[in-house]
Structure prediction request, 218 residues.
Amino acid sequence: MTDIVVFCDFDGTITTSDNIISIMKKFAPPEWEGIKDSILSQQLSIQEGVGKLFSLLPSSKKDEITQYILSHAVIREGFGEFIDFTKRRGIKLYIVSGGIDFFVKPLLEKYVSFEQIYCNESNFDKETIEIIWPYTCDDDCDNRCGCCKPSLLRKLASLDDYKIVIGDSITDLQAAKSADKVIATDFLLQKCEELQLHHSPFTSFFDVISILNERLEV
Ligand code: MG
Ligand code: ZN
Prediction:
C-alpha cells in the first residue's frame, strides 16, 4: 500500500491566525507595515522580508515574545485529536512552516516531536533578532521562499507516496501544486478551486480526520 505523507502548515493552519503578524503588531516599531506591504506586493521575497521584520526586534525580547505567543495563539479545533489519529494510523506527518523556531516549537512541543518540524531558526547573539534559513530553495525553486515547502516535499516524500498538503495561504501554493491532494482553507482554498487542484475544504482538524479516513477506506 502507498504510504500517506502529510505536510501541514503552521501559521493560519494549526494556529487560527498568523503569529509573525501578531508579533510585529505587538513588538515592532511602525515601519514593519511598510516591509509587510513590500512582501505582499512581491518587491521583497519572503526570505528578505521576514529577515528584515525580525531585525526590527531586539534580541533581549526573545522570552517575552515566546511567552506572548504561548498565551495568545489559538490552536485550531481538533488538532490534538488529529495528531493522535496520525500516530494510530501510521501516517507520516511533517509540520512545514515559514514561522520561526522560538515560537513554533514551544507551541507544538506537547503535540509532536521536534524531528517532525521544519521551520526557520533564529539567533539572539546580536543586538537584534537574526533569522537563519536551514531549508532554503533547492535548484527547482527560485522563489526565495525562506523555508521552501516544495523543496521539502521533494526531499521528504518519495515518488510513490500519497502526498497531502494542508494549508491556508499563498505560501502553501507551490507545495499544493505538487501534492496528490490538498486540504485547504482561506486563500489556498480559493486558489485550489481556481486552478482545479484535487482538494477538500476544512474548518477544523476534525474535518481533516474525516478526509483522511475517506482516503484510508479506498
Ligand atoms: Mg499559513
Ligand atoms: Zn522555494
Q: What stands out?
A: The chain has a mean pLDDT of 96.
